[in-house]
Design goal:
6-stranded antiparallel sheet; 3-stranded antiparallel sheet; 1 helix; 9 strands; 41% strand
């Protein structure tokens, strides 16, 4: 009996720690259509959304130097839709310009897996420092709220 209780408590503790550590949104897939300086990005994210209190509120395209190229605002949480894909554009880059696509959580900021590459060469996963280009967090556009 005690072994069952200990196992139950250990599983609960592990789930709580995992939940605390998994508070960032990951970029899983990037697909691009269109022409140079007029691309549409379709970005698939996975995020630990719980509602408007915790959700991925945007994904963005930035240069490796930390300049914001494009930001796609996400107007609501995706609690029951994980992973999810949202498109945005026009993204004004050339086909060989290297960029980074990363996601942002409303309550924990940047972090998680990002993608780096170009339209011509494709994109590969990359893990950025959590504070990489953190100053972009206050740049416009900003979300105007959360619908649900």
């Amino acid at each position: 009996m005690y072994n069952g209780i200990i196992l139950f408590l250990a599983v609960g503790l592990f789930a709580s720690i995992f939940s605390i550590l998994n508070d960032t949104a990951d970029v899983l897939v990037v697909k691009i259509s269109g022409n140079p300086n007029d691309y549409t990005f379709s970005v698939t994210l996975e995020s630990p959304d719980t509602g408007c209190d915790q959700y991925a509120n945007w994904w963005e395209v930035i240069t490796p130097g930390g300049d914001l190229v494009y930001r796609r605002i996400l107007g609501h949480s995706h609690v029951n839709e994980q992973p999810f894909t949202r498109s945005g554009g026009p993204v004004q880059i050339s086909e060989d310009q290297e960029v980074i696509i990363r996601a942002h959580m409303n309550n924990t900021g940047y972090g998680g897996k990002a993608m780096r590459g170009s339209v011509a060469a494709g994109f590969k996963p990359v893990v950025l420092e959590k504070d990489f280009a953190g100053y972009l967090e206050t740049e416009e556009p900003q979300p105007s709220g959360c619908a649900f």
